[in-house]
Structure formats: C-alpha cells, structure tokens
Write a structure and sequence with these properties.
Elements: E1 2-4, E2 16-20, E3 25-29, E4 35-36, E5 38-44, E6 50-57, E7 73-74, E8 80-81, E9 86-95, E10 98-108, E11 114-123, E12 135-137, E13 141-148, E14 154-161, E15 170-177, E16 189-192, E17 202-209, E18 212-219, E19 227-233, E20 241-242, E21 249-250, E22 258-268, E23 274-282, E24 293-300, E25 308-309, E26 315-317, E27 342-343, E28 351-354, E29 357-360
Antiparallel strand pairs: 1-26, 2-3, 3-5, 4-27, 5-6, 7-8, 9-10, 10-11, 11-12, 13-14, 14-15, 15-16, 17-18, 18-19, 19-20, 19-21, 22-23, 23-24, 24-25, 28-29
Site (Important for catalytic activity, responsible for pKa modulation of the active site Glu and correct orientation of both the proton donor and substrate): 143
GO biological process, one term: carbohydrate metabolic process
Protein name: Beta-xylosidase C-terminal Concanavalin A-like domain-containing protein
C-alpha cells in the first residue's frame, strides 16, 4: 500500500493513537493548546485516510481555557519561544469498552503563577461526542499517559517538572490511579531520567511486549534536537534500562524533508505490523508555515529487541499483508457539530452561522492579546496552497 505524509496536516502536534480491534478502527488525538473546541479526534480504517470526528473538549463548561495564556521568552542560544498554555499532549486509550483521553490544562493566573491541571475525560461511544466532564488528579507535571494492566490496574505516567516550566528540568514519574475517581493508589515515583538525562523528558507512553515494559519518551525540546527515546524493564516500576540505540528517531544532523521529528506513539495494527506516528515539520523556503503536523512511518520491532523506526518520508510504500482493515472511510461521516475554532473561552452566543454567512459581535480584545478571547472564528489551514475567500460587511444593531 502507498502512503502519503503528513497523515494529519496543518497544526497537529503531539499525536497519540490507538487501534480498537472491536471497531477495526484507528483513533488519534492531538494537542490543541488555547483553541476551542479542544483535543480533536480523528478516525481511520487504514492509517492513510483520516476523518475529524469530533473533539474531546466540546462544551464551554467542560474545561476552562481563560488561563491558557501566551508567553514570550528566550530559551537556549537566545532562541525565542512563544508558547501558549492550555491543552498539552493528550493520550488516548481504550479499555473494557471505554475511551479515555488524559491531558494537562496548563494555566497561568493574573500574577504569573502557573498550574498544571491534569485530568481525563471518558466516552463509551466515541462517535457521539458525549465526553464526560473532567476527572482531575494531582500531578506536578505535563503530558500524562495511562497504562492499563490485564488485571484492571491503571498507572499514570507523566513529565514531572522539577522546577518552573521554562527551566525544562523534568523526569518521568508514575503512580497507580483509581481510574473511576482519579484518586492515587500509590506514591508518585520517578521511573526514568530519560536518555538525555533530566532535560525535556516528556510525552511518556508504556507498552507491554515480550514480558517487558517499554517506556517511550520525547526529549530534546521541540526544535532541531527533538527526538524519541526508549527504555525497558521487567517491572512496571523499573528499574528501566536505557537503550544503547537511542535516539530511536531524530532529524538532528540530517538533511530530511521532514524535520524536528519527535513526540509520538508506537502501535501495532490488525495484521501485526508496527507503526509510529510522530510530530514533525515540513520546510518551505526555510520556514515551516504549517507548524507541527502528524506523520506516519513504519517500525520493525523484533522479539526481545528494541524498535527500529524509519525516518518519516513524504511518500512510502509498505506491504499490505492481508489488509483486512484497509478500506476507505466512505461509510464514516464527520460527527463534529462545527468545523470552526475559537481562542480560549468564547461566548458562542457572539457568533451566528447561517448558511455561508457568519455574524459576530466584536470585542475590545484583539489577536495580539496574550490572554482573553477575541472575536475570532477560523479553520485550520491544511495545505501549503489553500485558498480562502471572504466578503466583509458591517451590521449595526440598535439598542
């Protein structure tokens, strides 16, 4: 089968993916930061054709984004970084008939105090958009993931911050959780410093294979030095052995069409083949105007060995095997109630959409503001050559 990258183009960072055998479908979620609706969910039958089916955060009262502020500061080598708060690096999982999306809502108050509000939402019917209200749990960090044992126990892994977010000192820590209530059932324990060693160890995911627990992490920031690394242990609590072949994915020092590769997931399809989804950027005249996108690449994972990840290519082919699940999504219909996005906490009553006409009530806050919700309604650009047309008009309301 022939594949094309990116599989989710245009602002689709930090992908997390699962294959649900009972539905013969892949489901993928991305970060959304300070945009509403949040945490977009995509579905595919063949890892190539994807449909946006909804958002895990889709009600104004579900998650507050008013504290998802934008900051401006320099990092190493005085490289400017303009980060936004909000919904960081979600993980999607399915267990015993329930879908879980676990995430961090990174918020900053009016005097600059930051808070990592970690939570998860659930749904039994992922197509319905009926996601629960958040269940919060205490964790001083970001990028949480869930691992479910066969005996029903659940463990949360995350990037624990050993200082302010800007300092980037972080390790992977874990605790057992009561998945019904969010209450901890164990202490929070450090399980890995990462391959680089306490520098940007983020986005952890645990997989069980060949009686090993494999711990995947993203490291090196999100620029040229971004990478994926891996470790393993016979016990979920460690100690974890760091792979000598690390990093198992990076574009640093290479001339690649897809660069800054890192933060992602490994999964096995219905035919037993292994894959990786990861973030990356496509350069265009020295820039990457589409931002971080989601790419797909093959993985070879021998028994009792480390995974070998091919660097993502814009086009590649792979033997389809039986391809029992390789069919287009013709029978699938997007269930999202709106394709539009807003910034932070919008008052949806300020926006009226009738056919091809959009009416909105202006606010004093504009797009240059580092906080608040301007009168903004938009859609993601998905291709370098997208064209958009709009006719502007002004209406006056007496009162």
């Amino acid at each position: 089968m022939h594949y094309h990258n990116p599989i989710i183009p245009g602002f689709a960072p930090d992908p997390s993916i699962i294959f649900v055998e009972s539905e013969q479908t892949y489901f993928l979620v991305n970060s959304s930061f300070h945009f509403y609706s949040g945490l977009p969910i995509y579905a595919s039958k063949d890892l190539q054709d994807w449909v946006h089916i909804g958002n895990a955060i889709n009600r104004e009262t579900q998650i507050p984004l008013n504290g998802a502020k934008t900051g401006i500061f320099n990092i190493e080598s005085d490289q400017p970084l303009v980060p936004a708060g909000g919904l960081f690096a979600p993980t999607i999982r399915w267990n015993q008939g329930t879908f879980y999306v676990i995430c961090t809502n990174f918020l900053t108050d009016d005097i600059g105090n930051a808070k990592c509000a970690n939570f998860y939402v659930t749904a039994t019917d992922i197509w319905s958009q009926k996601w629960s209200d958040p269940i919060y749990f205490d964790f001083e960090g970001i990028d949480p993931s869930i691992f479910f044992e066969d005996d029903g126990r659940a463990y949360v892994q995350g990037s624990w911050r050993d200082g302010p977010l800007i300092e980037l000192n972080c390790t992977i820590r874990q605790f057992e959780i009561d998945i019904k209530t969010g209450k901890p059932l164990s202490e929070i324990k450090k399980i890995w410093d990462g391959y680089v060693g306490k520098r940007n160890a983020e986005g952890p995911h645990i997989y069980k294979k060949d009686s090993y627990y494999y711990l995947l992490a993203a490291e090196g920031g999100t620029f040229e030095g971004h990478l994926l690394s891996i470790a393993r242990s016979r016990n979920i609590w460690g100690p974890y052995e760091t792979a000598e072949c690390n990093p198992i994915l990076t574009a640093e020092g290479k001339v690649e069409d897809i660069r800054n590769t890192g933060h992602g997931e490994i999964l096995q399809d219905g035919d037993g083949r292994w894959w990786c989804v990861c973030l990356g950027v496509r350069y265009n005249d020295g820039r990457f105007p589409m931002g971080r996108e989601t790419f797909l690449t093959p993985v070879e994972w021998p028994v009792n060995d480390w995974p070998k990840i091919d660097h993502p290519r814009l086009e590649f082919s792979r033997d389809g095997g039986d391809m029992k699940i390789a069919s287009a999504l013709d029978s699938f219909k997007p269930s999202a109630d709106t394709p539009f996005i807003h910034i932070r906490d919008p008052n949806l009553e300020d926006f009226r959409i009738v056919d091809n006409t959009i009416s909105l009530i202006p606010r004093e806050i504009d797009l240059s503001s580092l906080s608040g919700s301007p009168s903004f309604i938009g859609q993601w650009q998905r291709h370098f050559t997208d064209t958009a047309k709009v006719t502007l008009g002004t209406a006056f309301r007496r009162g």
